[in-house]
Write a structure and sequence with these properties.
Layout lengths: L6 E5 L2 H7 L2 H10 L1 E4 L8 H7 L5 E4 L8 H6 L5 E4 L9 H6 L2 E3 L2 H20 L2 H5 L20 E5 L3 H10 L5 E5 L5 H6 L2 E3 L2 H7 L2 E4 L13 H5 L6 E4 L8 H9 L4 E4 L19 E3 L12 H15 L10 H4 L4
Parallel strand pairs: 1-2, 1-3, 3-4, 4-5, 6-7, 6-9, 7-8, 9-10, 10-11, 11-12
Helix pairs in contact: 2-13, 6-8
Length: about 325
């Protein structure tokens, strides 16, 4: 390999590598870069970690990167880009962006998997599949849960990033009305995905399905509070595939006790829930353990996206998935 090619350090554990990097993508990576696979770094000394980054131009990461050797990463004078074959990148020190290092992620590539599960949860919830599967265990004796169709209903989305936008696309055949709350997304983007801007109060009051897509930041923690949860429709479906701390779980638990609506929670606060937490035992709650985006199939689309970004960067082409500073500050 020519010395003019960039040196790429792959910080992906072996058990993850084969799930995100296909043979074709690996071949592409080697076609434009000198590739160095990092040995397990958890127990390396500071000197060894610094040596690991010597002469490195770009870094490729994915799940399993923790603990990330952030100090050695920042100490390198050569690293120009870190491309993450997964979603959240808040584990990358903010100083990296301040230093001018480019960060990219594969949130757009992996979002369809989670969006599919949002659609699945919406259909299962409205059709009350829990009760159909457990005919002797009603959602509530005091408050009947009425089975409904998705077609023609209103779906509310709190946050309108990649996952929500894909969810909106999957909802198109059902002729739903989409209400969206996201102060950082333009009216043009909302309209382009068939969504109407709405405040949180309207979303909870009018929606048969409420789906949370907001990251957990100081601004959003506890945003979904008791007042909003009390206003949710009877027989509605509440979905959270984003982050648990966005929702006041004490208030959520109290409302779910009433059996008025069902909740599909891929994330909780805390996560995981204590074994004796009431949400574990409610018939109108399904907990999926932060697995909405995972399948038994390889996730090679995220590897394709991440390696593609590296190739574009070192070829002088525009990037597709760069994480800007203002986005980083709003991410989980």
């Amino acid at each position: 390999m020519s010395q003019s090619n960039p040196n790429i350090l792959v910080l992906i554990p072996q058990h993850v590598y084969g799930q995100v990097i296909s043979p074709e993508t690996e071949k592409l990576l080697h076609s434009f870069a000198n590739v160095r696979r990092a040995e397990p770094w958890k127990d390396k000394s500071e000197d060894e970690l610094n040596e690991m980054f010597e002469g490195i131009d770009g870094v490729l990461t994915s799940w399993g990167v923790h603990p990330f050797p952030g100090k050695a990463f920042l100490a390198s004078d050569n690293v120009k880009i870190l491309s993450h074959a997964a979603g959240g990148v808040r584990w990358v020190p903010r100083e990296a962006l301040e230093k001018g290092i480019i960060i990219t992620n594969a949130s757009e590539a992996m979002s369809p998997r989670i969006s599919e599960m949002c659609l699945t949860y919406a259909l299962m919830g409205l059709h009350n599949v829990q009760e159909l599967l457990h005919l002797r265990e009603k959602i509530s004796d005091a408050q009947p849960f009425f089975r409904r169709r998705l077609i023609g209903k209103t779906v509310g989305m709190v946050g309108f990033g990649w996952i929500a936008r894909n969810f909106a696309k999957y909802l198109a055949p059902f002729d739903v009305k989409i209400l969206a709350y996201d102060p950082y997304v333009s009216d043009e983007i909302l309209a382009g995905h068939g969504a109407e801007r709405a405040d949180l109060e309207r979303i909870f009051r009018e929606s048969a399905v409420v789906s949370i897509h907001a990251g957990a930041t100081d601004e959003t923690r506890g945003m979904i509070d008791a007042k909003l949860l009390k206003s949710i429709q009877d027989s509605a479906v509440f979905i959270n595939t984003a982050r648990g701390p966005v929702v006041d779980h004490d208030a959520l638990t109290e409302e779910l006790r009433k059996g008025r609506f069902v909740a599909y929670l891929d994330v909780t606060d805390p996560e995981p829930l204590p074994a004796d937490h009431p949400l574990n035992f409610m018939p109108n709650v399904m907990l999926s353990g932060h697995k909405a985006g995972s399948t038994d199939e390889p996730v090679i689309e995220v590897g394709d996206a991440a390696v593609g970004e590296l190739k574009r960067y070192f070829s002088g082409e525009p990037l597709k998935y760069e994480v800007k500073m203002e986005w980083y500050d709003r991410m989980t």
